[in-house]
């Protein structure tokens, strides 16, 4: 079987993500490992958004809310565990935890419920209205986090010891990177399976022509709502990892800047391309690191690059390297 | 008289001061092709939209399979077996020709929320979809993007999608539009046989096709049905001649 060009590009991207931190380990450069971890986490947040933005054609400008919900799941549970204060005592007692697996489950459930509520309202709109209403909901959650003193309010919440994962020393940079990379891989594999399934066909159909969807007897709303919820869950999982990477969570994770950044990963890398978010997040972090260290206004060239991608290379980085997408 | 599969009674739709559908009463009986003709702006497409459930009627009732479907939306009406095609092809441009038909099969199967099994190797969707493509003569285009096939082929694909829904009635909105004489002739032959599968409400400007196919014709002028009858009735009707057919008749 001959490998098509996109598969080749994807393999290179995947290999680079694994090789760079391994080389950094050999050269004793833990900071590079941290950067690679950040790429993996951001890419995962982008994989979540890509599901609705790329495959569903829904421009959500509020995904930072879900990223932040994941982050706060980690922060809140860990802080209660470290203070030995139960989260609630009535009607039954709920303790905090420093186990990532429990935190992830809480992040998934919380983000799913909130996405279900937000999606049920926002998905009745489309176009610019959808963008603005998702933004509005995210801002509501952002301001709620700021004004909630129990968990640090504007100052955020520190996680003093990185949460644990069975059999792994999560404080060891390369181990934590491996964990994040595996999670990213799982999210991407899940996403790949999803878009090839019946549900994926319907989701991509709803993006292209909702009149036709209706005329074949499939209501686009329910398809989009399920996609929105799954998308939020993936982004929330990335948020939980991000809080653990920084050992800190604050409302900044939920700000509209963050929503914009997640969107930039997807657009820069390639909207509706499986490896797009990885390419985009990688490029973003490389630019931030290379330019940001010497040039205070590094986002200016980033903006120009984004403009070029939007105007001339709709398929983003993956599109430029691998050519136009064949039919879904 | 065969039973009416679809019947409209006193269907009315007003846009501001314009009466787009004016007290329309007509039915579609098992096994027939009922053509709906009329000058541009007569309200033919508006009526199709009302039947399909894309547009709410101000007044009147629509019965389908013996059930009042006034309260059902377009999705529910499709699922009950009402398949429509569009005057301007409405397809999934980025999907392959095959995927366009598979989506319809997926809807018929009732199993859309399946997340893991790859759809393109799902024989329960691929095989019946290919069968419909063969029927309309598009099998050799199956793997092409819908955006890349010719206009005439897109019209054929519209038909294949409607066929794949295995409907109990077809609503065809100008299926010949923009087709060459050769294509029109082929489609005329195809529709001729199709009425045995399910009755067809046919909106069409191509009078050769209408006169060749229709069991009955209704003439719509300014939203109002001015005549319903057989081809000969309509050809001989003075009102119709004056209002619509002009020197053509």
Task: Tell me about this structure.
The complex is a heterodimer of chains A (about 325) and B (about 250). Chain A has about 325 residues and is mainly α. Chain A has 13 helices and two strands; from the N terminus they run αααααβααααβαααα. A two-stranded antiparallel sheet of chain A has the order 1-2. Chain A is globular and about 55 Å long. Chain B is an alpha/beta fold and about 250 residues long. Chain B folds into two domains: about 160 residues, P-loop containing nucleotide triphosphate hydrolases (Rossmann fold, 3-Layer(aba) Sandwich), CATH 3.40.50; about 70 residues, no CATH class. In chain B, a hairpin with a 2-residue loop joins strand 9 and strand 10. In chain B, helix 3 crosses helix 4 and helix 4 crosses helix 5. Chain B starts with a strand and ends with a helix. The mean pLDDT of chain B is about 90. Chains A and B meet through helix 6, helix 7 and helix 8 of A and helix 2 and helix 3 of B.
